[in-house]
């Protein structure tokens, strides 16, 4: 969990038209229902921050019914709605079944790497805020799922041209993965049952400059509200489980 505010508005401040900026906490979490967001880390005023960065450029997000862009939130300020689902067909790749814990004929709920963000959420990994000017380097960021609560199993994976790369798989007891500093890429966030999940994560990375190396770490708990609202488009295209081309933000 972050311990110091940074220069970005929270939803609570936005709704009351406050000019105060920061990853400051609010009493009630707001629901992130559609558009683009990042599972983001950054270094601000010497503090290693781990939360959400929503919207950038033409990619906006909707939070609590309000359209936001280039806003940052602590993990406990938001709940993420997962409203895409697909009935897993016979013949699905065994690697995908094993990694997600799904079975043929079951329903898989997810945020898809191929989503367009219209009426649903896109959630990528974002490490662009770990800036690397001349003389500064960051290690890869390590993410660890320390534990979770929820009615089913959670997995986080990427479809790389038909090869399923699982960073997190509760079904296979895989709980740690790395991602390069300065990068961004969409991911598939999959859940096997409807309901509310709380995922406790640790993010860590090391910054190196002329003065030496400094390790940073932060813990945050993220809430996902999985609702049984299947999308007919995803049921037809089957893009919900990441079988289409990889999506990158330019």
Number of strands: 18
| Major sheet summary line | 13 strands, mixed
Shape: globular
Structural class: mainly beta
In the residues, how many domains can be counted? 1
Commentary on this structure:
- The protein has helices at 11-15, 94-100, 232-237; strands at residues 30-44, 47-54, 61-63, 66-68, 71-74, 78-82, 84-87, 107-111, 121-129, 137-138, 141-149, 154-160, 163-169, 176-179, 184-186, 188-191, 195-209, 212-226.
- The chain has 250 residues and is mainly beta.
- The protein has one domain.
- Strands 1, 2, 3, 4, 5, 6, 9, 10, 11, 14, 15, 17 and 18 form a 13-stranded mixed beta sheet that branches.
- Strand 1 (30-44) and strand 2 (47-54) form a beta hairpin.
- It is globular.
List the helices and strands and how they pair.
Blueprint: H1 11-15, E1 30-44, E2 47-54, E3 61-63, E4 66-68, E5 71-74, E6 78-82, E7 84-87, H2 94-100, E8 107-111, E9 121-129, E10 137-138, E11 141-149, E12 154-160, E13 163-169, E14 176-179, E15 184-186, E16 188-191, E17 195-209, E18 212-226, H3 232-237
Parallel strand pairs: 1-6, 1-9, 6-18
Antiparallel strand pairs: 1-2, 1-3, 2-5, 3-4, 7-8, 8-16, 9-15, 10-17, 11-14, 11-17, 12-13, 12-16, 17-18
């Amino acid at each position: 969990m972050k311990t110091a505010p940074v220069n970005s508005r929270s939803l609570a401040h936005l709704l009351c038209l406050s000019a105060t900026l920061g990853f400051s906490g609010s009493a009630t979490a707001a629901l992130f229902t559609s558009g683009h967001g990042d599972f983001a880390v950054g270094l601000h005023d010497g503090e290693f921050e781990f939360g959400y960065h929503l919207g950038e450029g033409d990619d906006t997000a909707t939070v609590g019914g309000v359209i936001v862009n280039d806003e940052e939130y602590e993990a406990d300020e938001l709940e993420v709605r997962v409203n895409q689902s697909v009935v897993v067909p016979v013949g699905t790749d065994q690697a995908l079944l094993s990694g997600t814990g799904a079975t043929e004929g079951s329903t898989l709920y997810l945020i898809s790497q191929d989503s367009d963000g219209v009426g649903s959420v896109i959630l990528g990994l974002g490490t662009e805020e770990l800036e690397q000017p001349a003389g500064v380097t960051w290690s890869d960021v390590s993410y660890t799922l320390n534990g979770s609560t929820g009615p089913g199993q959670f997995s986080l994976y990427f479809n790389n041209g038909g090869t399923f790369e699982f960073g997190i798989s509760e079904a296979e007891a895989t709980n740690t993965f790395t991602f390069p500093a300065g990068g961004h890429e969409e991911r598939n966030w999959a859940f096997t049952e409807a309901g509310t999940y709380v995922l406790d994560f640790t993010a860590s990375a090391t910054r190196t400059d002329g003065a030496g190396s400094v390790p940073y770490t932060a813990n945050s708990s993220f809430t996902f509200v999985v609702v049984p609202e299947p999308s007919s488009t995803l049921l037809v295209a089957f893009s919900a489980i990441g079988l289409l081309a990889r999506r990158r933000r330019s």
